[in-house]
Amino acid sequence: MKSALTIVALTAVVAVSAQESKLTPRLAGGKPDLSGVWEKPYVPDMTKNGTKQRGYPELPFTPAGLKDWESYDAANGDYTGSCLPFGMTRSFNSPYPMQIVQNNTHVALLFEQNTWFHVVPIDGKPLPKELEPTWFGTSSGRWDGDTLVVDTTGFNGYTRLDTVGHPHSDHLHLVQTFRRTDADHLLYTVTINDPETYVRPWTNERTFTRTDGGLIEYSCEENNKDLREGHIKQWTLPEPKKP
Hints:
Order of helices and strands: HEEHHEEEEEEEEH
Shape: globular
CATH architecture: Beta Barrel
Largest sheet: 10 strands, antiparallel
Number of strands: 10
Distance between the termini: 87 Å
Radius of gyration: 21 Å
Number of domains: 1
Number of helices: 4
Structural class: alpha+beta
Low-confidence stretches: 6-10, 12-21
CATH class: Mainly Beta
CATH superfamily: Calycin beta-barrel core domain
Helix content: 10-25%
Strand content: 25-35%
């Protein structure tokens, strides 16, 4: 029969092992390892609160931003219906998982949604002043303690922030933060800074949960009968803004 002292010692070892298994994993250099496949909350409307996410209820529109928002018609040519790139925020907002792959110099964001990807250098170098406008923008990452901070600019202005169509311009500057609190959870924030559309920055907060599953193939074009049969209008490039 085991002594009471032995039982107490074994219990302590099990407790310590369980606690260690939940600690934030780290790379050899000491930085938190964000790698893994993560389940994200579905955020079709960034103003709403939901499971594992907190929205921003009253968006601080500029007059131009409010006009854009009130005139938006998703059924009349939303770009995602034509399988064009979702952009950064709508890819994070989608209900499908994402995978993060990390080393000491880069983080790769792999989205199951439409098989998009985005690579972020995390060496702290500033973004170039002249950027080619793109759907996902150009990013630069840096560490603030155990939090990865990612700045992204250089957007083409064609995307929407979320499914319901909250707008942004090509002046959009995103600041995203990633902090792995333990082995199974990642705290994520995204701050929208776009002086053409909003009078001040605003933030959405979420919690991602690690999953043992993997990403699967996603093809927007396959069986897209709504677009093929004309149920939705095909998206076309907007007219250039007049100076």
